[in-house]
Amino acid sequence: MAWILLLVAGLFEVVWAYSMKLSNGFTHPTYSIVTIVTMTASFGLLSVAMRTLPLGTAYTVWTGIGAIGAFIVGIVFLGEQIGPMRIGAAVLIVGGLVLMKLSAH
After folding, report:
1. Terminal-residue alpha carbon distance, the chain
2. InterPro entries of this UniProt entry (predicted)?
């Protein structure tokens, strides 16, 4: 169950990062509210997952999901550049996540 909560927390992290970008420095109220609500949900679910999972594993997976998710959202929805070095960095992050998951007790 902790892994599911951690996955959902990571997905909320992607949402809040994207909505923060769209809030334009918290000048758009709707996106600002979405940012604050999803950020709170993300941190809350992370804290519950950390009751069971090791700190290093939980935090690394959470930030990794957020990083890869934001990378994909940036490319798909914001037209950000995609290049070999960025793809290589994303592959390394995913590899680290897999290793963290495999090393968790």
Report:
1. 14
2. EmrE-like, Small_drug/metabolite_transptr, Small_multidrug_res
DSSP state of 54: -
* Structural tokens at position 16: 């809040």
Task: Identify the CA nearest to 42 among candidates 70, 9, 80, 87.
Answer: 9
* Tokens coding 81: 């550049």
Whole-number Cα distances in Å, 5 to 45, 57, 86, 104: 6, 13, 28, 16
Looking from the CA of 65 toward its CB, the CA atoms found within 13 Å total: 23
Domain residue ranges of the chain, discontinuous segments joined by +: 2-103
10-residue mean pLDDT profile of the chain (105 residues): values are 97 98 98 98 98 92 94 96 94 89 75
At residue 97, φ and ψ (nearest 5 deg) are: -65, -45
